[in-house]
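sanity check this:
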Amino acid sequence: MTPALHSEASLTAAEFRDIRALLDAYCRSIDTDRLEDWPDYFVPDGLYQVLSRENVELGLPAPLVYYYSRGMMQDRVTALRDALTYEPVYTRHLTSGLQLWTDGDAFAARSDFAIYQTTQEGITRLFSVGEYRDRIVRDGDCFRFRERAVIMDTFGVQNLIAIPL
């Protein structure tokens, strides 16, 4: 997924703006508990996975979370709302270091993230840091993720990964 050349020059200003808007809207939907919107940021056969940096570096294909369709993502949201029990938290995504480039029929993106979680009691802690690696495609008049890999530097998460990262 990583090309030899990272070039933002091959993107138009409008493409850069619209892809940046996709990345920001994705985080905002999670941070404002609009989880029902989350699957819509992906194409129907989109891939979402969460991996540890250690596994990626060792070439081990063992994701912590793996969804290979929008339908699986929608099922996860339904389970979160109706079936699973987990400690409710407020999240905040901080992203930086965005790189965008064209990669065949898609756009590729990398960005760094830090995700904070705040409990209902107001205690905030750093939940995870890492890197997003994305393949983004034009889908009609908007952009959507074909693939989103969440590469976590954080080896041990303090609780389950209930909501999307």
User: Anything to note?
Assistant: The helical segments are 13-31, 53-58, 70-82. The radius of gyration is 16 Å.
